[in-house]
Design a protein that fits this description.
Blueprint lengths: L2 E5 L2 E4 L4 E8 L4 E10 L6 E7 L4 E3 L7 E6 L4 E6 L8 E10 L4 E5 L3 E6 L1
Parallel strand pairs: 2-11
Antiparallel strand pairs: 1-3, 3-8, 4-5, 4-9, 5-6, 7-8, 9-10, 9-11
């Protein structure tokens, strides 16, 4: 069973920065991709950014130029550096990891970490 340990959320003023971390452990399978999603109250969960095993990245338009996703393969950890935060970035942020066996993919979600941006 894969365990995802998220950290780094909190309260910050608009214009500030936070760095989220998500460490994955407990799987023998290779990692296909790692990413961050967020869900604000009353809204659907949405992709923020993800990164593949080949280091290809994908960002939501709303965070391009402000957020940077990166990964440390040796630590099985994905990071989300969030700069120039806005009140509309307030949400619960979830880590997502996709693992691959020879024939099957497995998707795992973290428990979520709250990010609150005050105006």
């Amino acid at each position: 069973q894969v365990r995802l340990a998220e950290s780094g959320g909190g309260l910050v003023q608009a214009g500030g920065s936070l760095r989220l971390s998500c460490a994955a452990s407990g799987s023998i399978f290779s990692t296909q991709s790692m990413g961050w999603y967020r869900q604000a109250p009353g809204k659907q969960r949405e992709l923020v950014a993800d990164i593949t095993s080949g280091d290809s990245t994908n960002y939501a338009d709303s965070v391009k130029g402000r957020f940077t996703i990166s990964r440390d393969n040796a630590k099985n950890t994905v990071y989300l550096q969030m700069n120039s935060l806005k009140p509309e970035d307030t949400a619960v942020y979830y880590c997502k990891v996709v693992k691959m066996s020879l024939t099957t993919s497995f998707t795992y979600w973290g428990q979520g970490t709250q990010v609150t941006v005050s105006s």
